[in-house]
Amino acid sequence: MIDIGLSKMALIGAVALIVIGPEKLPRVARTVGTLLGKAQRYVSDVKAEVNRSMELDELRKMKDSVENAARDVEQSIQTTASDFEKDWADATRMADGSADNALAHDASSVTPAYKHPGKNWRLKRGAVPQWYKARAGVRTRAQSGAARVARFRPKRFH
């Protein structure tokens, strides 16, 4: 850029005072200041746009590399899965041949069907210890409304 020091600025100001004159100099100085401000803003906008475009290019390159890596991983998983499926099919075919013979001789080896464990959703069965539940007053047993009223009803004195 242009190296303008204090001495050069004073020389330019003196020449401008002589050439332009003292009555027009403030208006010209204001105009030159606004033009320099606009030029600086324009240059900063251009720099910001260039930086954004460079960052966008870098992000695109990074996105492409991540997509390629994901594609490679997906292909390797698919090949591994297809190999596993082939091995599984071979193993089940071999097991089916021996299992058919075993099932014909022994009918008690049939596995029972899955039965869902009947959890009571009203009871709080978290990972909170019982002593903490007792201290905090958390209900651990389901109780009907009538039973709760009867439990907490004040006893009558005779």
From TrEMBL:
Protein keywords: Cell inner membrane, Cell membrane, Membrane, Protein transport, Translocation, Transmembrane, Transmembrane helix, Transport
Gene3D superfamilies reported for this sequence: 1.20.5.3310
Pfam families according to UniProt: TatA_B_E
InterPro entries associated with the record: TatA/B/E (IPR003369), TatB (IPR018448)
UniProt topology in membrane: Single-pass membrane protein
Main subcellular location: membrane
Location of this chain's protein in the cell: Cell membrane; Membrane
PANTHER family from the UniProt entry: SEC-INDEPENDENT PROTEIN TRANSLOCASE PROTEIN TATA, CHLOROPLASTIC
Family from the record: Belongs to the TatB family.
Record text on subunit structure and interactions: The Tat system comprises two distinct complexes: a TatABC complex, containing multiple copies of TatA, TatB and TatC subunits, and a separate TatA complex, containing only TatA subunits. Substrates initially bind to the TatABC complex, which probably triggers association of the separate TatA complex to form the active translocon.
Function: Part of the twin-arginine translocation (Tat) system that transports large folded proteins containing a characteristic twin-arginine motif in their signal peptide across membranes. Together with TatC, TatB is part of a receptor directly interacting with Tat signal peptides. TatB may form an oligomeric binding site that transiently accommodates folded Tat precursor proteins before their translocation.
HAMAP family, A to Z: TatB
Protein name: Sec-independent protein translocase protein TatB
Protein source organism: Acidovorax lacteus
